[in-house]
Amino acid sequence: MKRMNFNKGFIPSAVLSIAIIIFGIVGFVTKGINFGIDFKPGLIEEVRVAPPVAEVTYNGSAKVAVELSAGQLDLVISGIGAVNETRSFNFAEFTTVEALANEMNKVSGVNVKVLDGAFDTTKLFLNSAVSNQLTNSVLYIYPAGTSEITTDDIRNALASLTGISVKQLGQGADASYQIRMSDTKELSQTDLQDSVNNQLYSSFGKEKVAIVKTDFIGSSMSNSIASKSILMFVLTVALIWIYAAIRFHWDFALGAVIALIHDTLIMLTFIIWTQMEFSTTVLAAVLTIIGYSINATVVILDRIRYNLTYMNDVNSFTPILNQSLSDTLVRSILTTVTTLFAVVSLYVFTTGSIKDFSLALIVGLLSGMYSSIFISSGFIQFFRRTWKPEFGVHHSLRTVKADE
User: Using CA atoms, how far apart are residues 12 and 334, in angstroms rounded to an integer?
Assistant: First the structure.
């Protein structure tokens, strides 16, 4: 392939990368990292606020549990003296709450009181904080897509609590709200959850508040995960440096490690300024990019080593480096683009932590291709700026190659 002068972009690229990293440091000081529950002790609770559409009770002697999925509602009946069975109610057949309730009421002991009979059954959900076992106490069935509550309403309801942040998930009436409460006093999960839920119950009514899911991690566990994550990153980079130093040369290895650290800092800058939640899933994306980036860099280093052996018509290291980058350019672009197809699909068609994972991967893939070409190679050129060809060494290497 025609030799391109990549070396002309090394200094501008270094300046650009330094500027981005400084921008990230400023963001770290002013905004901080939005640590997920894995790294920050406390409670994360997702809630919906809406009036229930049905009340379910049971006064029989068996044990009856309600299980609700996207396509149907199941009544799981068990116990001594009862016929162990599962009664399923498909939402394709029972399309409204009223139709569903009429059929459920045919089960002995089950009583369903309809509050909104016209509501679509495919949008029903249960309160995860309440047992799904039916008793004389009321089990509420809730509707998704009817909430008129806003993020500000949730914040106002929790205004008396400290260390609270609220994030809206979804749009409009389909929105739910993620509530995060940091644990500064090493309280139990029950204490934290009660302090949040009691405020919500007081503001909106207990029957209208449904908990979608809850996550909790104690301070000792979060500290352990954080320290192990740092150790894992350091060991990964150290092993990569050792591998590259053995296979190539110490300056090649140093250039590769600098590119890895560069990619990590670029990803952290993006995570900080977008306030993406830094969870173990995002950490997995960072480690994935480290592996991907070193693979792209090793291909270039291997080509440089090859050209060092056979390009003995040059007087400096720069032509060898430019030729090596030119030889591997198409491969670097195609590999990145084809990987991006899969990652962009993940970003478009998924939600939650997988969406964050794929977005972090997109940034890392682009940064990894860029750093392999300009950052790693730029540092290698700097360390070999005084390099001169050694004819005897080249001649000996060619002879050995011929003998093989």
Answer: 24
Report whether 272 contacts 27 (CB < 8 A): yes
Residues 6+ apart with CB under 8 A from 56: 66, 104, 110, 111, 112, 113, 134, 138, 139, 140, 141
Packing angle, helices 250-274 and 352-370, rounded to 10: 140
Contact between 275 and 36 under an 8 Å Cβ cutoff? The reply is no
CA dihedral 325, 327, 333, 336 (to 10 degrees): -80
Tell me, what's the pLDDT at 392?
A: 45
Q: What is the DSSP letter of 92?
A: T
Selection from 255, 352, 299, 197 nearest residue 14 by Cα: 255
CA distance 122 to 132: 18
Sheet of 54-58, strands arranged across: 110-114, 54-58, 139-143, 124-126
pTM for the model stands at 0.61
Q: What is the pLDDT of residues 24-72, one digit of tens each?
A: 999 999 988 887 766 777 788 888 888 999 999 999 888 999 998 878 9
- Least confident range from 66-80, 120-134, 298-312, 319-333: namely 298-312
Distance between CA atoms of residues 168 and 383, nearest Å: 50
Selected residue with higher pLDDT from 137 and 169: 137
Q: Give me the residues paired with residue 53 across strands.
A: none
